[in-house]
TrEMBL record:
Residues 233-243 have a biased composition (Polar residues). This is R-spondin-3. Activator of the canonical Wnt signaling pathway by acting as a ligand for LGR4-6 receptors, which acts as a key regulator of angiogenesis. Upon binding to LGR4-6 (LGR4, LGR5 or LGR6), LGR4-6 associate with phosphorylated LRP6 and frizzled receptors that are activated by extracellular Wnt receptors, triggering the canonical Wnt signaling pathway to increase expression of target genes. Also regulates the canonical Wnt/beta-catenin-dependent pathway and non-canonical Wnt signaling by acting as an inhibitor of ZNRF3, an important regulator of the Wnt signaling pathway. GO terms for biological process: positive regulation of non-canonical Wnt signaling pathway; Wnt signaling pathway. Belongs to the R-spondin family. Pfam families: Furin-like_2, TSP1_spondin. Keywords: Disulfide bond, Glycoprotein, Heparin-binding, Repeat, Secreted, Sensory transduction, Signal, Wnt signaling pathway. It comes from Eudromia elegans (Elegant crested-tinamou). GO terms for molecular function: heparin binding; signaling receptor binding. It is found in: Secreted.
Length: 243
């Protein structure tokens, strides 16, 4: 054994040095050099730290550094997260996104431009003026639509969500709220009263006629019956011819 190689290694090292740390790692572990001041120390880790990507070889597994503009990477040429000031696009870190894409400052990625989308217009509302639908000839009617897709930073802005236009209606008088129903109720009550009044008058008339009839009948009962006068025989005086 080389005099610089220690036998009692710790921390996953297969071989190590008192001065340089790990020289080789146990199976499945990754060897990486960490800088401490002016010196580099070898360590063995189960996965590569941020800014490194792992490569497996038959004799050793190593952690290699990502590109300078890349924070984390899958391989040297495929970045998964960029450092500040760069935007990720197809595994690369760019200072400016390509044409047709825009920089997303939240995810630090180049994403597709999203334009605003609106729904279809609703039907036109009834013609109104000052919130009323009667008592005027010229008013306004409106229609609305909803935003179904909001735009991204560089996307086309959203259009208006409401429209208004002049309208003409047949002039008619306004009825107070509940007046129609009230009128119907009043008519019904009035009709009932009139019917009740007529019924009372009819009953009163029948009662009066019945009373008059009874009075006449009682009067007739109290008066004595008149005797019929005897029939007078015709005159039988002899005529002038007889004398």
């Amino acid at each position: 054994v080389h005099p610089n190689v220690s036998q009692g290694c710790q921390g996953g090292c297969a071989t190590c040095s008192d001065y340089n740390g790990c020289l080789s790692c146990k199976p499945r572990l990754f060897f990486v050099l960490e800088r401490i001041g002016m010196k580099q120390i070898g360590v063995c880790l189960s996965s590569c730290p941020s800014g490194y990507y792992g490569t497996r070889y038959p004799d050793i597994n190593k952690c290699a550094k990502c590109k300078a503009d890349c924070d984390t990477c899958f391989t040297r040429n495929f970045c998964t997260k960029c450092k500040s000031g760069f935007y990720l696009y197809s595994g690369k870190c760019l200072e400016k996104c390509p044409d047709g894409l825009e920089a997303n400052n939240h995810t630090m990625e180049c994403t597709s431009i999203v334009h605003c989308e609106a729904s279809e217009w609703s039907p036109w509302s009834p013609c109104t003026k000052k919130g009323k639908t009667c008592g005027f000839k010229r008013g306004n009617e409106v229609r609305v639509r909803e935003i179904v897709q909001h735009p991204s930073a560089r996307g086309n802005p959203c259009p208006a969500t409401s429209e208004s236009r002049k309208c003409i209606v047949q002039r008619k008088r306004c009825q107070k709220e509940g007046k129609g129903k009230k009128n119907r109720e009043e008519k019904r009550k009035k009709s009932s009263k009139e019917e009740s009044k007529e019924t009372k008058q009819e009953n009163k008339g029948r009662a009066a006629r019945r009373q008059n009839r009874e009075q006449r009948e009682n009067k007739n009962k109290m008066q004595p019956k008149k005797r019929k006068a005897p029939n007078k025989e015709p005159n039988t005086a002899p005529s002038d011819a007889a004398h």
